[in-house]
Structure formats: C-alpha cells, structure tokens
C-alpha cells in the first residue's frame, strides 16, 4: 500500500479565487497571504552611508551591501487592490510589493511584479526610499518572476465548507416517519 500523500499546505492565490471571494463579499484584506519564494532585496551603499534602518549590512567585493531578506512563505497583508494586481506589505512600514495578475504575463496566479525589469533579467524595486535589486534564491531560475502569492489550503477548505448539523427525529413527538420497527431510525 502506498503511503498517504500529504497536501501542500499552501495553494496559489489565483484570479479565480479572487473572483470567488469577491462574489461572496469576503473582505480580501481579511485573508492571510504568503509569498511562496524567498526574495532578497540588496543594494550597494557608500562607506559614509553605512547606517541602515532595515535589513542587514554585509561587506561584499570591497563594498557594503544592505540586504533585506523576505523568507519563503512569509505572511503578508493586503494593503491595496490595483486594477491588475495586489500590493502587499511584509513589515509594519509603508513599503509594499506588487503581485500582478494579467492576461499577458500571468493570467492565473498573482506573481511578483517589480518596479523595473532590467535587460539582464534582474529587477528593481523602491523600498524604504531606496532602489534595491531583487533576487530569488529559491526560484529555479533565480528570477523573482516565479514568486507568487499563496494562501493556506486549510483557510480555503474552511471557506468552501458549509456545515449543517441535524438533530434527528423521534417518533411520537408529533413527527411522523420511519417504519416504527427501528428505534434509531
């Protein structure tokens, strides 16, 4: 006998799921979202700008690097809905990252959408009023365009569940039914 197959606890947050929740008047800001891949934001800084508010400072190839790591499956909150995507926040500040759902690039999932794609395949975002280069070490191509928004499967299962508990029927209390021969009927 084959061992039971465990379900992935996360499922992609798709356009279909967005439409389903919207049609049921569920507040999309009340849904807990996650980023399914690790995103690393990095930027080089001068020696006279070594103080950093967020992130980690590293010394790499003779220069300081400010790095902000968003680990795989980091919970994020929805800040705003834009025509073609969702802006989410992973910290308590005002910085958001956009996840795009468009017919041209991603007709199903909400995928990471930087502020700018570079010709060499890298991309940039503005974060904490600074320009960062974004990479995705957990993506198969190291490109952040594989990162997408996901939700927990258990949350979706609960949204699709409608439970009705029946009290049962007893003969002789004004209820009719059953054949009378089985008291549990």
Gyration radius, in Å: 24 Å
**SS strand fraction:** 35-45%
Largest sheet: 7 strands, antiparallel
Give the overall form: elongated
Which structural class should the secondary elements be placed in? mainly beta
How far apart, in Å, are the first and last alpha carbons? 37 Å
Structure summary, number of beta strands: 13
Instruction: Give the ordered list of helices and strands.
Output: EHEEEEEEEEEEEEH
Structure summary:
With 185 residues, the protein is mostly beta strands. It has helices at 15-23, 153-159; strands spanning 10-12, 33-35, 39-45, 56-60, 63-70, 74-82, 85-89, 97-102, 106-113, 116-117, 123-127, 130-135, 149-152.
Molecular structure report:
9% of the residues lie in helices and 38% in strands. The model has no long low-confidence stretch (mean pLDDT 81). It has a 7-stranded antiparallel beta sheet. A 6-stranded antiparallel beta sheet has the order 4-5-3-12-11-10, with no helix packed on it. With 185 residues, it is mostly beta strands. It contains 2 helices and 13 strands, in the order E-H-E-E-E-E-E-E-E-E-E-E-E-E-H.
């Amino acid at each position: 006998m084959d061992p039971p197959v465990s379900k992935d606890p996360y499922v992609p947050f798709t356009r279909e799921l967005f439409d389903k929740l919207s049609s049921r008047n569920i507040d999309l800001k009340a849904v807990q979202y996650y980023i399914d891949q690790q995103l690393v934001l990095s930027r080089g800084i001068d020696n006279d700008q070594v103080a950093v508010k967020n992130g980690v400072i590293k010394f790499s190839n003779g220069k300081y690097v400010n790095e902000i790591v968003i680990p795989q499956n980091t919970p994020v909150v929805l800040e705003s809905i834009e025509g073609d995507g969702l802006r989410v926040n992973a910290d308590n500040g005002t910085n958001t990252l956009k996840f795009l759902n468009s017919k041209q690039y991603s007709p199903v999932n909400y995928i990471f959408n930087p502020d700018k794609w570079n010709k060499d395949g890298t991309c940039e975002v503005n974060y904490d009023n600074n320009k960062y280069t974004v990479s995705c070490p957990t993506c198969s191509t190291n490109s952040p365009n594989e990162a997408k928004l996901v939700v927990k499967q258990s949350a979706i299962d609960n949204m699709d569940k409608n439970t009705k508990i029946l009290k049962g029927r007893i003969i002789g209390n004004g209820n009719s039914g059953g054949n009378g021969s089985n008291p549990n009927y």
